[in-house]
Structures are given as C-alpha cells and as structure tokens.
Specification:
It comes from Rhizophagus clarus. By secondary structure, the chain is of the alpha/beta class. Helices cover 36% and strands 23% of the residues. Helix 2 packs across helix 3 and helix 4 packs across helix 5. The structure holds guanosine-5'-triphosphate (GTP) and magnesium ion. Magnesium ion (MG) binds next to helix 1.
C-alpha cells in the first residue's frame, strides 16, 4: 500500500498566462522558469514535488503552444501516464482577459481528462487579481465574467471552485540593473498570501478524502498485521485519519509505534501482549489499553 499518496496537480492554461508563476507560488520555489512576454514559451512540461502540512504534492505545468487538439491531448496523456496515483486536481489558469482561444483550451483539456475517467475536480484560478482579498471584488468579478458571455459563464459554473490570487513577479530589475529588493519583498509577501489561498482548499479536500479513506486504512492495518507477533511501525507518513484501533490481535506480543499522526489509540482484546512502545506520537490525546473488551 502506498502510505503517503502523492497529490498530482496539473496546471493548464493559455500561453504566457502565468502558469509557471503559479507553480512557483504553490511549491514555494523559483524552480519554474517564469517568462517575460518577449521570451520563448514553456515547451512540454516542468514539474516539482513539494510537501506542505504533511501532504506531498507533485505540481506539473503543461506548456501549450497551440490549441491543436493532438498536441494538447498528447501532452496531457504523457503526463498522466507518469502518475500511477491518478490525478488529484487540475488548476486551469486564467487572467483578466479570457479569450475565445482559452475557452477552447479549457474545453479540450477538460473533455479529454474526463474521458480518461480520472478526475472530477477542476478549479479555475484567476491570477493577476490584485483585489483577491476582497470578497466583494471577487463576487463582482465573478458576476461580470458570467454576464460577459455564455461560454465563459458555462465554464465558471461547471467548475467546483474559482480561486482568486495575485502572483506578482519577483525577478524585478531596476533601471541600473540591480535587483529591486523593495518591490521583490512586497511581491514575495503577496505570493505567500496567494499560496495559503491556493493550498488551504486542497488541505480541506485532502481531509475529506482522508475521512472517507479512514475505514479503508484501518481495514488495511487489520489485514496486514492481525496475525503478527511483533508490530513495528515508524511511520510519520502513515495516516489513519486520526485514530487507530488494535482489537483482538491474539498473537501480538510486542508493539512499537513511532511518529504516527494519530490522536486516538485503542488497544484491546489481546492475550499475549506485554511490550508496548509508543514514541513521538505528538498528536496523541487519547490512549486506552485493555486486555479485555472496551466498555
Ligand atoms: N502581476 C502579476 N504578474 C504575473 C502573475 N502571474 C504571472 N505573472 C507574470 O506574467 C509573466 C508570465 O508568467 P509565466 O508564469 O511565465 O507564464 P506561463 O503561463 O508559465 O508562460 P508559458 O509557460 O510561456 O506559457 C511573468 O512575467 C510573470 O511574472 C500574477 O498573478 N500577477
Ligand atoms: Mg511557463
């Protein structure tokens, strides 16, 4: 079993819209090459794995230089082939001007990915939105976009969520060729805020999925270990969605659990168990050990 499933995130959007900047914000790096308008566009793809709040993410930017169907399908197909864990989410990037071409790109990628049967989650990220912290401005913008044209309105309504952020450039050079430290610092702060806005909903979604997966994880644990004499888990990457129950493991003599992210642990109905070793269970709030059944 894959203990810490990686969350694959695809970043799709028109050329030069701001995909690399978004990837840098998400992964908190400068690893994705951000292009000025005169520079050449990103070919194929760029990627990065990063961790945030106990989760592991793999963010991939797909460079789309034309809206030619085959090109787009090939690229998305290739990327997906490298993701045995499946795709967790697509972020479709738009800026202040949504063109007919963008709409086509959106529909092409969405249709293709839906047909592959691997995803039900597309989020639109509207970047370069300096008022991103104002709910009123976001709402106004949303209404305006929906009223602008029927196709755009359909896209916006078909997506589960629209996220507004601003990821201003951090490679700013003054007229004398020096780095404009003051502006870079301000922009970095804005990017940090954007990062939270982007990652928080993912965290929520991960939690939802974990709750759903909780039963499965407990079941996996039971199947994997219920005949064992010795259980030794050092698993900061294991997640049982908060609680673990070890019940009726009749062969168990020695158990050692280290670095598990559980807040509740129940051990019961054992007959041989005489060594229990718990260490670095920093989230543990409730522990109960009973040779017979719990009340
Ligand atoms: N102010 C502002 N500038 C941005 C934002 N996002 C991107 N930019 C700038 O827009 C330019 C293009 O951004 P990129 O991230 O390189 O765009 P891209 O979509 O990756 O471009 P290609 O890979 O070439 O298709 C860069 O100069 C970025 O710094 C944003 O949210 N706000
Ligand atoms: Mg790019």
């Amino acid at each position: 079993m894959d203990l810490k499933k990686i969350k694959n995130i695809l970043i799709i959007g028109p050329t030069k819209v701001g995909k690399s900047a978004l990837c840098n914000v998400l992964s908190d790096t400068r690893g994705f090459e951000e292009n000025e308008s005169t520079a050449k566009e990103t070919k194929n793809f760029q990627e990065k794995i990063f961790e945030h709040d106990w989760m592991k993410y793999h963010v991939v930017e797909i460079g789309i230089k034309s809206i030619e169907k085959k090109d787009l399908y090939n690229k998305i197909g290739k990327v997906i082939n490298f993701m045995p864990e499946g795709l967790s989410q697509i972020l479709f990037v738009v800026n202040e001007r949504i063109m007919a071409e963008d709409i086509d790109t959106f529909y092409l990628s969405k249709d293709f990915i839906f047909k592959c049967g691997i995803l039900d989650y597309v989020t639109i990220v509207k970047i370069k939105f300096s008022d991103f912290k104002s709910p009123k401005k976001r709402e106004e913008d949303y209404k305006e976009l929906c009223n602008e044209n029927e196709k755009i309105s359909k896209i916006f309504k078909s997506c589960k969520k629209i996220i507004y952020v601003n990821n201003p450039p951090i490679n700013i050079i003054t007229e004398n060729g020096d780095v404009d430290k003051e502006r870079v610092e301000i922009h970095e702060k804005i990017r940090k805020k954007s990062r939270i806005i982007l990652l928080d909903p993912m965290k929520e979604r991960n939690k939802e999925q974990q709750t759903k997966g909780l039963k499965k994880d407990q079941q996996w644990f039971n199947e994997e270990y219920n005949k064992e004499k010795v259980i030794n888990i050092d698993g900061k990457q294991l997640d049982f969605g908060g609680s673990l129950e070890i019940k009726g493991f009749s062969n168990l003599e020695n158990i050692s659990l280290k670095k598990l992210k559980i807040n509740s642990l129940k051990i019961s109905n054992y007959s041989q168990l005489n060594i229990i070793n718990l260490s670095e269970l920093s989230k543990l709030k409730s522990l109960s050990v009973a040779k017979t059944n719990h009340a």
